[in-house]
Write a structure and sequence with these properties.
The protein is of the alpha+beta class. It is built from eleven helices and nine strands. A hairpin with a 5-residue loop joins strand 4 and strand 5. Helix 2 packs across helix 3 and helix 4 crosses helix 6.
């Protein structure tokens, strides 16, 4: 076998032009992956351009590799380490939130930087003071926006996520509302001196199946006794085969009214192992927009409620009136 011609000293600073690499890849594509002629073609190209064969291989690998148009350290500052810069950004974001008023005005980024440079900020880790001229307003604003600590996103209300029960009787939504059926005869058990009782619609909705159980009751306001009597009927087995609503729920969601605040109601629900969840208004520390819980429970049975007050011959008209002999008047709907 004839000896190969010695290669010239490779110049690592040189690289073959792009057109030559494209032509070299085309010639290599015509050969099989294990063809010995591939090595000869690479050696000839390296000898022609005065580079090593490893430079040719590296140039072929990087020929179709996408190259970023930005620097490798894009997004990070060279004057301050990344961890320390993020810590400064968190402090500046906290200063903006703590100095905001009801009109949305707050401390600017430039003023917060001057405050860090001149006086410093006391944190749980100690006093934090920045050397003068180290932080720039544009850099701090970019870090705040990239990390999600800008004022617009920090003060944005949290998205509401609706709870969805995975099984029946995991959550009941309970509500009491005055009925639209205004004209009813006065019951015999009206107490003298207390005025006219209010006809209210007591309703529970199973969050999983959407089954509704309703009762009309004449009550003197929302009291715990009437609510407990209604919930007892809702949990008890029903004589109607087409109404399978029964059982003890895991939790009950209701308005934060006099019933949920009643010690008797809370004691009975605690004895049954039922959690009472109430809709609480937002506190000053929270930024969540408050929503009314009343409409969530009324929406499923609004059709029954309106139809019962308009059409007396509606198929959902009440079929049974139970006279308990006390101060309430219950009407159970099929």
């Amino acid at each position: 076998m004839a000896a190969r011609m010695p290669l010239r000293m490779a110049d690592r600073s040189k690289r073959p032009p792009g057109e030559a690499l494209v032509d070299l890849r085309r010639r290599l594509a015509l050969l099989s992956p294990r063809d010995p002629a591939r090595t000869e073609v690479i050696e000839r190209a390296a000898d022609a351009y005065g580079v090593s064969i490893w430079t040719i291989y590296r140039a072929l690998r990087e020929l179709t590799r996408p190259k970023s148009v930005r620097r490798s350290d894009h997004g990070s500052t060279r004057a301050v380490p990344v961890a320390k810069m993020e810590r400064y950004a968190e402090i500046i974001a906290a200063l903006k939130i703590r100095t905001s008023n009801k009109k949305g005005r707050h401390l600017s980024t430039a003023r917060a930087i001057r405050l860090l440079e001149e006086d410093g900020v006391e944190t749980p880790e100690g006093l934090v003071r920045v050397p003068a001229g180290l932080l720039k307003r544009a850099t701090v604003d970019r870090i705040l926006c990239a990390s999600g600590l800008d004022y617009a996103r920090v003060t944005r209300p949290i998205a509401a996520v609706r709870f969805q029960a995975k099984r029946s009787n995991e959550l009941w939504q309970f509500d009491m509302s005055p009925s639209d059926l205004k004209q009813v005869e006065a019951p015999l058990w009206v107490e003298q001196g207390r005025g006219k009782p209010t006809l209210m619609l007591f309703s529970v909705v199973d969050d999983r199946s959407g089954v509704v159980y309703d009762e009309y009751r004449c009550v003197y306001g929302e009291d715990a006794e009437s609510a407990l009597r209604f919930l007892f009927n809702a949990m008890a087995p029903k004589p109607e085969a087409e109404l399978p609503f029964q059982g003890i729920p895991t939790a009950i969601y209701m308005d934060n009214g006099p019933v949920s605040r009643s010690k008797v109601f809370q004691s009975v629900m605690g004895s049954l192992g039922v959690r009472v969840l109430t809709h609480l208004p937002p506190s000053q520390a929270e930024r969540r927009t408050a929503a009314r819980a009343k409409g969530k429970v009324e929406r499923p049975f609004r059709t029954i409620k309106d139809a019962d007050s308009v059409d007396p011959d509606h198929p959902f008209r009440s079929i049974a009136i139970t006279d308990s002999g006390d101060s309430d008047h219950a009407t159970r709907l099929a």
